[in-house]
Every structure is written in C-alpha cells, then in structure tokens.
Design brief:
Helix content: 25-40%
Number of helices: 5
Largest sheet: 6 strands, parallel
Strand content: 15-25%
C-alpha cells in the first residue's frame, strides 16, 4: 500500500494541565487513535509519529526531558513504528520524514494531529509541495483560541478556517467516520 499515516504532535503539553492546552484535544486524539488502529490492522509498516522537541526554551512547551514533550498515550507508538523528531512547524523541514516515505514508495498521506493552524497546516502544504496526495482527517486535529489586536478568534473558527483553506487545493478533508467507512 502506498499510503502512510502521519500523526503530528499529539503530545502531552497540548492536553489539560499541559503548557499549551488546546480546545478538545481528547476528542481529536481519540479520533486519531481510531485512524491509527485502522492503519495498524491494514498498513502497519507505514505509520509515522512526528514529535516536536523544542530547540529553544523560549518556546515554553515541548521542552526536552519534560513530561509535556512525550507523545500522548492515546496514540503511543509501538516499538516498530517510526518516530520523526522535528523542531519546526513543518514536519518535513530538517527531518528524515521525506526519506522514510521515499524508501517505502509512499505517494499518499493521511494526516492527523495538532495544532490545526500551525503544524497541521504547515505539514499538509509542504506534503503537497513535495508531490504527495494528502487526506486530512479534520476531526482528528485540534487547535486553540487565537487573538490579534484585542480580538479573540475561538478555536472552532480557527480550526474550520484552516481546514476550509486546505480543502480542495491542498487536501481531501474528511472526518474519521467517513475515512473509516470508505475503507471498510
């Protein structure tokens, strides 16, 4: 199968009591776990966990050797699953992800993870620029409220703004349920 699952940054700092809490990360992680389970049953050699480890302590989260940097137990990697370490929003930038995908002759990606407006957006756009056909499982992603100039944009609006911008030109956007039903 020439399709790989890319699980981006589902890490403990994004969950309650973490250093960068998102809106409803548990729902997104549960949905990502359903997609992960499907891949483990049907395509186990093409699962890639992306873990962000901050290179600059000023980032304030995903700091090395902290509990928050750990991949959340909902999608905890198995021993034979590849973990790609990154330090930028784009999961391809200065990582070996593209090399792993080329080695496995991957042409299609399924992307889940966190944060929709940052690492998911950057990773999906980069994947398409690199020639990958990409599917984004939108309800297996999460983000947070953003603000600019005193105006707060609620997480749900942030999420759907970015998802709708990716739909079509950059990715096929779908839900966990639709993805799983279409593969049954």
């Amino acid at each position: 199968m020439n399709t790989a699952l890319i699980i981006v940054d589902i890490q403990k700092d994004y969950f309650p009591n973490g250093k960068m809490e998102l809106s409803n990360p548990e729902v997104a992680a549960t949905n990502a776990a359903k997609v992960l389970e499907w891949f483990r049953k049907n395509n186990k050699e093409n699962i890639f966990h992306v873990q962000h480890i901050a290179s600059n302590p000023a980032m304030g989260f995903f700091l090395p050797e902290t509990e928050g940097v750990e991949i959340h137990e909902t999608v905890e990697p198995l021993k034979d699953e590849t973990i790609v370490i990154k330090q930028f929003a784009n999961s391809f930038l200065q990582t070996d992800l593209e090399k792993h995908l080329a080695k496995n002759e991957i042409t299609k990606l399924v992307v889940v993870g966190m944060m929709t407006h940052m690492c998911i957006d950057a990773t999906v756009r980069a994947a398409v620029d690199l020639g990958f056909e990409t599917t984004l499982i939108e309800d297996a992603c999460a983000t947070r409220d953003l603000s600019y100039d005193g105006k707060v944009v609620p997480a749900e609006q942030v999420h759907y703004s970015f998802v709708s911008a990716l739909q079509g030109m950059y990715a096929e956007v779908t839900s966990t349920e639709s993805f799983l039903q279409n593969r049954a």
